[in-house]
Design a protein that fits this description.
Layout: E1 5-7, H1 9-16, H2 23-29, E2 35-38, H3 39-50, H4 62-73, E3 77-79, H5 83-95, H6 102-114, E4 119-121, H7 125-131, E5 136-138, H8 140-149
Length: about 150
């Protein structure tokens, strides 16, 4: 499968969580058959979907979260980094003074760059654009609009 875009975990989460404010636009994206998701994004999405406590907006049961992620996986390619590539990405992030969860954005961008996927689709464009200025970083709505025009 030739992939035109790599989808960020926040889009996966929004697509499967009906309560998410970006659910309709995110879900519509997965009508396409030329998208990829980074392997580690499934772990990040599962963690967010099943989180409990005060800052747990979705609180999916584990089987429900797994089924939702399987539905995304069924229509996308899954791509990842080798262990060495992952380690190198963490090293580069640390050397650049990176802190916290933006590391996951770094890994997503590395997957796109190494697989020559020119577009990352995310609801968090600012973080990814700052880490990967040579990649096109767009929201699902902007991606759909560009595709329909081109």
């Amino acid at each position: 499968m030739s992939c035109v875009a790599l989808v960020d975990s926040n889009v996966v989460i929004a697509a499967v969580a009906e309560a998410h404010e970006h659910h309709p636009a995110s879900l519509a994206l997965f009508d396409r058959q030329d998208l990829a998701v980074a392997a580690h994004s499934y772990a990040e999405a599962y963690s967010t979907l099943t989180r409990r406590g005060e800052r747990a907006p979705f609180a999916f049961a584990p089987p429900e979260a797994w089924a939702a992620l399987q539905s995304v996986r069924a229509v996308t390619a899954i791509l990842g980094l080798t262990p060495a590539q992952t380690f190198d990405a963490v090293r580069d992030y640390a050397r650049a003074g990176g802190v916290g969860a933006r590391l996951y954005d770094k890994l997503i961008g590395e997957v796109a760059a190494l697989n020559e996927i020119p577009i990352i689709v995310t609801w968090n464009t600012a973080h990814l654009k700052s880490l990967f200025p040579d990649l096109e970083v767009v929201t699902p709505a902007a991606f759909q609009s560009e595709v329909s025009r081109g």
